[in-house]
Design a protein that fits this description.
alpha/beta; Rossmann fold; five-stranded parallel beta sheet; 54% helix; Dephospho-CoA kinase; dephospho-CoA kinase activity
């Protein structure tokens, strides 16, 4: 069974995924990490990105300057769509290969764009990590040291909170402390094991 886990920027997806992996041994595939792999130096995707946007999107060591690229594509929706059309099939291939290697009872596909990219169609259930937008803004601005306007632009490019919740089979509410999030993850894990064994909870 493949379970998708998503949430807006700053919602706490990584903290939830880490709990599934560290406390319960669940195989986690992070689509965001795969998105970094497909643009590593030497990969064809990076060459195409540089052809389109120029050397300004490269760091001195030849790797992708992600903040510089993000600034360009979130300013211009047509550029963002071009980038997504280039990267999404490549990311999907990496994700599929990694999921195929899972040995835990179920695997977790973590993706900020699970709904938007169609990756949710690879999953049998969807978990949404949900927080109020005010908390998303504050957490992300503090963590990434970026202006609130840039955080808002990223949030607008992602599915709305309502859209995500409509797709959810399970919701983790992450407006409290880490212990509260962990307790919800633990309960979900037990529920999934029961489902896999044929019991229903």
């Amino acid at each position: 069974m493949i379970i998708g886990l998503t949430g807006g920027i700053g919602s706490g997806k990584s903290a939830a995924a880490d709990r599934f992996a560290e406390a319960h041994g669940v195989h986690v595939v992070d689509a965001d990490m795969k998105s970094r792999v497909v643009v590593e130096p030497g990969r064809p995707a990076l060459a195409r990105i540089v052809d389109r946007f120029g050397d300004d999107v490269l760091l001195d060591n030849g790797s992708l300057n992600r903040p510089a690229l993000r600034e360009v594509v979130f300013r211009d929706p047509t550029q963002r769509l071009w980038l997504e059309e280039l990267l999404h099939p490549l990311i999907r291939e990496e994700v599929v290969n990694d999921l195929a290697s899972a040995e835990s009872p179920y695997a977790l596909l973590v993706s900020p764009l699970l709904i938007e990219s169609g990756q949710h169609r690879m999953t049998e259930r969807v978990i949404v990590v949900d927080v109020p937008e005010s908390i998303q803004l504050a957490r992300t601005a503090a963590r990434d040291q970026v202006p609130l306007d840039q955080v808002r632009a990223i949030m607008e490019a992602q599915a709305s909170r309502d859209d995500r919740l409509r797709q959810a089979h399970d919701v983790l509410v992450n407006d409290g402390d880490l212990a509260a999030l962990h307790a919800q993850v633990d309960a979900l894990h037990d529920r999934y094991l029961a489902m896999l064994s044929g019991d229903t909870l």
